[in-house]
Design goal:
single chain; 5-stranded antiparallel β-sheet; 26 helices; about 55% helix; about 20% strand; elongated; disordered C terminus
């Protein structure tokens, strides 16, 4: 028969301690009492001092417990209004079991109770709830200490007297030890407070009594003398107040004595006791309880003569027995415990492949089994963490390998190759949708691609079936599902999406390895394919832009060649000047286009960078948004709340496109403060950060409406859900704005790059000026201020593309005249003779009077060699005068130079003029 460890300890203690103690007590107590009689009062007083010190030690233990608890991470569950996990609750009760019965309460940073945990065992749930309610109500008496903790971060310890029901409805006054400590985060910000309250009860008195060998009685001064005292006496109900040392008359008599209170004797339960009293005071110095130590002297009077000799003999016998039993205990208990300690130290050093072989039926055997289970769980956790780290490393390596690729083919081949290496596939195919919406094979790697391409499901190719299905198609055993293909292994077709549109499909195949693809492989595929879609779209956009740049370079090269040929012809004959001026003007325009390409590229690159950043953020935020939506749908029991917030966000999405009104910093700060106060009232976490974010997103009123109608414990989750939605909308708006910027630049560049316009067309003059401003935006955006004063002018039938070159040359000259710093003013109006007047004025240094009449001559320039050709203003005059029949004039003085262009509303083309003549 196997004995439990506690049975063995009881047996050994009965042999070693109880029997000798009984024998020594019966034979020798009478002898000891006679000799100790003279020191009785001194011993009683000493026991009183020791008892007081033990109470102080208990107070210190409660204080230290509150300080330790304030640093526990899992205490944040109670602070958030949630229950502790069973493991954390068990660990906490075990760690602070020495405190006895009491409670651990967690307060918010405003002093409100957020959660509590009762220390001790209570059989009935209703009783536990009533006790916890008593402790909650007792916080009223500590209101000043709570304010000191949450306002000044000041920890405190105090004794309190409080009347509780104890779960049975009968009020009883007891003495409690209460410690309060602030809960701070790593930045020393207050998160709340922890309150540890323990009761001074019979168990506490018995523990002190066991240490002192004296009986203990503690009585609250405001309590009922007949029943509110606690004591170590086992038969408390038979204790009469007339003979008790806490008798009100005795207390009154002794409280009038000096501070060093005298020891007195009294009869308690028909026995004679030596009693010493002391008073416990609260933090204000007010006495709240009496602490009494009673030493039984009746038993000491017996056996005075032979007690000493008997105790000596019994002690020798006990020493022999204890020595023998100690050796046996060391063999039985200490050795396996030492083995266990050694193995625990090995585990602490990281050696997890350890198995204890201790086959016993007591607690040591159970401890050995628990240790083996713990090392097994640690090994499993280590393996799981290794798999997760491997997955994260694989995703990072694949993402880095793809991100450095530029061309579309490089992105596809690198993506497929990296994924194939990660999931150990042998054959890979990649299909990409072209501009006409047809999926074409873009990449093939392996010897079985043709066979794999023959695989059909429901009459459709595998990639077509996966794309139509809209989710991955996985076939675990090809031989079983498609025996006619003679393929042995597994295959998966993974559609790749971008903005809810299928743009590609990747197929991966591998023959029959010992292990199949698992969840980790599929998770890697899902995460990587989401990124691949973005990289493919970026690569396609890059190739289009590269092709556009190549076309522009080719056009510049062709026009440069034509310019050289025209210059040669110009040198041969002056008669051909009229015919070649138009070509010179076009080539100068293209040459200017080449010099402006850097600025245009910068203007295009900025919104592309914004699109890329917004796309990256959008991918992350969409994932968080979906995760929050799933979490809300799983945890929310009120569908009305989810419907309300979805309707609210739908209205926000409709209003978000409009540009917000300009707001001052003081207004934004005030709005943030108002929202922060509302969030604090609903106990929302990170209220200041959320208030600032929602103010920036112009959603203050919507957040307030939601909290007023549906605020609750889960407000943090819904507000986080709303925040992610608004950030997604904000990124979409940023992408739309950047796209419009690119379209504006491309449209302006397309209009500017037109070589010749055969016939005049109805044109808005303002649009042409705006096109030139877009082309020159990179040269005008630093220290130059463009002031536009557009008048009410009608559409004109003109050569609009050629006029764009006029505006571009005049604005460029104005920018160069002010050395990149100053004001350019553009004014339009209609003259009295119904002509359109366009005036471009700069605040530059002006044109000297001696050269003012030469500025429109071909090849005349005031710029340094290499800075200008002298053709710009000559071409401008040709376009205005000869092509449009208009006039151009210039006025100049320091600080104000104006070019005035006068144009007819309708310009006739060459064919119309020939017909009329």
């Amino acid at each position: 028969m196997r004995f439990r460890l506690r049975h063995k300890l009881v047996l050994w203690m009965a042999i070693v301690a109880i029997l000798p103690a009984i024998t020594a007590s019966v034979v020798g107590i009478s002898m000891i009492l006679n000799r100790l009689r003279d020191n009785l009062h001194k011993e009683t007083r000493k026991n009183l001092d020791i008892g007081v010190n033990l109470v102080v030690a208990q107070i210190d233990a409660v204080k230290k417990a509150s300080e330790i608890l304030a640093k526990k991470d899992y205490l944040m569950d109670l602070l958030n209004g949630s229950d502790l996990s069973f493991q954390n609750e068990t660990q906490l009760k075990k760690e602070f079991a020495n405190l006895g019965y009491g409670t651990i309460q967690v307060l918010s940073k405003k002093g409100h109770l957020r959660g509590s945990l009762y220390l001790g065992n209570v059989d009935e749930i209703t009783t536990l709830r009533e006790i916890e309610k008593d402790y909650e109500e007792s916080l009223k008496i500590s209101s000043k200490a709570i304010k000191a903790v949450v306002n000044d971060y000041a920890a405190s310890i105090e004794l309190i007297s409080w009347k509780i029901r104890q779960g049975n409805g009968v009020g009883k006054t007891k003495i409690f030890i209460r410690a309060l400590s602030p809960i701070l985060n790593d930045d020393y910000d207050l998160k709340g407070a922890v309150v540890v309250t323990t009761v001074i009860d019979e168990l506490f008195c018995r523990n002190i009594s066991t240490i002192l060998g004296s009986e203990i009685i503690i009585y609250p001064l405001k309590g009922d003398p007949a029943r509110d005292f606690v004591t170590s006496f086992r038969n408390k109900d038979n204790l009469s107040m007339n003979e008790s040392p806490v008798n009100p008359e005795i207390i009154k008599e002794k409280s009038s004595e000096t501070a060093s209170m005298k020891v007195f004797e009294t009869n308690i339960l028909n026995s004679r006791y030596s009693v010493a009293l002391n008073f416990f005071s609260n933090s204000h110095g007010e006495p709240i309880a009496v602490f009494a130590v009673a030493l039984n002297i009746a038993a000491i009077q017996k056996g005075q003569d032979d007690a000493v000799l008997t105790i000596i003999l019994v002690s020798l016998l006990a020493l022999i027995l204890v020595s023998i039993m100690a050796y046996v205990l060391a063999r039985t208990i200490a050795r396996p415990l030492n083995t266990l300690v050694t193995r625990v130290q090995d585990v602490a050093r990281g050696e997890l492949d350890i198995v204890l072989e201790i086959d016993r039926g007591d607690e040591i055997g159970e401890l050995s089994t628990s240790f083996n289970n713990m090392t097994k769980e640690l090994r499993n956790l280590r393996d799981k963490q290794s798999l997760q780290m491997s997955e994260m490393q694989t995703l990072n390596e694949i993402s880095n390998a793809i991100s450095i690729q530029v061309g579309l083919q490089n992105v596809v081949s690198e993506a497929v190759g990296s994924i194939s290496l990660a999931i150990h596939s042998s054959d890979n195919l990649f299909y990409l949708k072209d501009d006409e919406g047809v999926f074409q094979s873009a990449y093939c790697d392996g010897t079985l691609c043709e066979k794999i391409n023959e695989l059909e499901i429901n009459g459709m190719k595998l990639y077509e079936f996966a794309v139509q299905k809209g989710e991955p198609e996985y076939i675990a055993d090809l031989r079983e599902s498609f025996p006619e293909l003679e393929l042995d292994g597994e295959i998966i077709a993974f559609p790749i999406n971008f903005k809810m549109e299928h743009i590609a499909c990747a197929i991966f195949y591998r023959n029959s390895p010992p292990l199949k693809w698992n969840k980790i492989h599929f998770r890697v595929l899902g995460n990587v394919c989401d990124q691949v879609g973005i990289y493919i779209v970026n690569a396609q956009m890059y190739e289009k832009i590269s092709s556009f740049n190549e076309d522009l370079e080719r056009m510049v090269e062709e026009r440069t060649t034509a310019l050289k040929e025209a210059n040669d012809r110009l040198a041969n004959t002056l008669d051909e000047l009229t015919n070649t001026q138009y070509k010179v003007r076009i080539n100068d325009r293209l040459a200017g286009l080449g010099s402006l390409m850097a600025g245009v590229a910068h203007e295009i690159n900025s919104p592309i960078g914004a699109i890329e950043a917004a796309t990256e953020n959008l991918g992350k935020q969409v994932k968080v948004f979906i995760d929050n939506l799933i979490l809300i749908s799983e945890s929310s029991k009120e569908t009305s709340k989810l419907t309300y917030i979805l309707t609210l966000m739908e209205n926000l999405f409709a209003d978000f496109a409009s540009s917000p009104v300009s707001e001052t910093r003081e207004y934004i700060k005030a709005r943030t403060g108002e929202l922060n106060q509302v969030l604090d009232n609903f106990a929302v976490q990170n209220s200041r950060q959320l208030a600032r974010r929602f103010t920036e997103l112009h959603a203050n009123d919507q957040v307030k409406n939601f909290l007023i109608h549906h605020g609750g414990d889960d407000s943090d989750l819904y507000l986080g859900f709303m925040q992610e939605f608004l950030l997604i909308v904000k990124n979409i708006s940023s992408m739309s704005k950047a796209t419009r910027s690119i379209m504006t630049v491309v449209k302006a560049l397309r209009a500017y790059s037109h070589v010749k316009q055969d016939i005049p067309e109805w044109t808005n003059i303002h649009d042409g000026i705006e096109t030139s401003l877009v082309i020159l935006a990179n040269k005008l955006k630093h220290n130059i201020t463009v002031v536009k004063e557009y008048g009410d002018i009608p559409p004109a039938r003109v050569y609009g593309d050629e006029l764009s070159q006029v505006w571009t040359n005049l604005i460029m000259n104005a920018a160069q005249a002010i050395d990149g710093k100053g004001i350019i003013k553009i004014t339009t109006s209609v003259s009295e003779d119904d002509k359109i007047i366009v005036t471009i004025t700069d605040s530059g240094r002006g044109i000297p009077p001696d050269v003012l009449n030469k500025i429109f001559e071909p090849f005349f320039t005031t710029k340094k060699t290499g800075e200008g050709s002298g053709l710009g203003l000559g071409i401008v005059q040709t376009i205005v005068s000869k092509r449009h029949g208009g006039e151009i004039d210039v006025t100049s003085k320091p600080g104000e130079t104006s070019f005035i262009v006068s144009l007819p509303v309708i310009v006739e083309n060459d064919s119309e003029s020939s017909g009329e003549s």
